[in-house]
Design goal:
alpha+beta; 2 domains; six-stranded mixed beta barrel; 13 helices; elongated
């Protein structure tokens, strides 16, 4: 028998027991879906991070009280650190004069109401900062002006607003010169930022920049820590600037020789590396879950094929009696097991890609197709079909034709 005829017979046998075949395929599909769905989502997120990360600008590093990603805080190591105060930040900036291109202070207060006249919007983010925010975070002013050093020094009640604030409060008029209320505090709009869209499902245009000195006057400084972003003059001087900055930060924090740093340093590369570590952990978990599911599915395939051999004993005996060889029988039953596994794998891949990309779309990220993982999934399904289908196929091929024909 040629491969084509064997394949037709295998498909015919599977169609005869459609429900049983479908349930077996479903087991494989679930196992493949669990890993392909996770890998697709992780690939989409990682691609978005690597190509569109704008949390920090170019040649930027940042100091903060907490690390970028911290799943736990043993003995409250980070929580027990002193907050980075505005005085620390000012002292650091003074020490870095002439050594860096820009030093930016940042403190956030999210989810605040903003109103103009009778119009009110919720969920905006207030950012207490200085004139270097645009450089440190890759923003541009669409029109109007940026915060100035004088605005910060005198604690003026002025603000530069994001595109979302303009769209929601000032649809048919310019916001420049208008006074809005942020959490019931009045601020005059002096500039509007260019739109940056969304990142990881969150808008980057819902921010209102106010002088950090004014921020602390209006909203208090208790339990607040300042993040400090620093930009080196060029990429070539990045490491040198970083070394000097760490020394300046230690001085600003009052640390003595031999004392451990009580602050964290991170950059775009740090954020990517931190995500990669999390992604690897999730991948391992997905592998474990999918391996268990695929093992169960493989056992199901073996069980179904053994039942099929028992049900078709007379058919096997008849085929042998008219000239079918042992390899023909093995090939037919192996093909049935492989088809069961591969069809289930294809369904799992399709659902996994749709599910992973659905998550990516929900967070407004670019869709991806994980070709490597998809091909790996098909290869694994073939191995499962062959591995768990070989024993039933060998058992069928080993039946004696006379005894098989006598089977009732």
């Amino acid at each position: 028998m040629n491969i084509r005829e064997t394949f037709k017979m295998a498909l015919g046998s599977l169609r005869t027991n459609r429900l049983r075949s479908a349930l077996t395929m479903l087991g494989v599909a679930i196992g493949v879906f669990s890993v392909i769905g996770v890998m697709t989502a992780l690939s989409a997120i990682q691609s978005s991070i690597e190509t569109g990360l704008s949390f920090l600008g170019s040649n930027i590093f940042q100091f903060g009280k907490y690390p970028t990603v911290s799943t736990n805080d043993p003995e409250e190591k980070y929580a027990n650190r002193k907050n980075i105060t505005l005085q620390n930040a000012i002292a650091y900036k003074r020490l870095m004069e002439g050594e860096a291109n820009a030093v930016c202070f940042k403190v956030f207060d999210r989810g605040k109401p903003v109103s103009y006249g009778r119009t009110k919007v919720q969920g905006m983010s207030i950012v207490g900062t200085n004139e270097a925010f645009l450089v440190a975070n890759s923003y541009n002013v669409a029109y109007g002006r940026n915060l100035s050093p004088e605005d910060v020094d005198f604690g003026r009640n002025v603000t530069v607003v994001g595109a979302d604030v303009q769209d929601k409060l000032f649809r048919n008029e310019t916001p420049i010169g208008k006074t809005i209320k942020i959490n019931e505090r009045p601020y005059q709009i002096i500039g509007v930022l260019e739109s940056k869209g969304s990142s990881f499902g969150a808008s980057q245009d819902d921010q209102l920049l106010v002088p950090i000195t004014r921020f602390f006057q209006d909203y208090g400084s208790a339990n607040r820590t300042v993040n400090i972003a620093t930009q080196s003059t060029t990429q070539a001087t990045y490491n040198q600037t970083l070394d000097k900055a760490i020394g300046a930060m230690r001085i600003a924090r009052g640390l003595k020789l031999g004392q451990e740093n009580d602050f964290e340093v991170y950059s775009n590369d740090t954020l990517v590396t931190a995500f990669a570590q999390i992604a690897n952990t999730v991948r391992i978990g997905a592998f474990v879950v999918s391996a268990i599911a695929l093992l169960a599915a493989g056992i199901g395939i073996m069980n179904i094929m053994l039942v099929s051999v028992t049900e078709r004993t007379r058919e096997i005996g008849l085929r042998k009696a008219i000239g079918a060889r042992k390899p023909d029988i093995v090939r037919q039953f192996l093909l049935e097991a492989i088809v069961l596994s591969e069809v289930g794998g294809l369904v799992g891949i399709l659902l996994g890609v749709l599910g992973g990309n659905g998550l990516a779309l929900a967070f407004k990220m670019s869709m991806v197709f994980p070709w490597g993982w998809a091909i790996t999934g098909l290869i694994v399904c073939s191995v499962i079909g062959i591995g768990f289908g070989f024993y039933p196929a060998w058992k069928a091929a080993s039946l004696h034709p006379i005894e098989a024909l006598r089977y009732e």
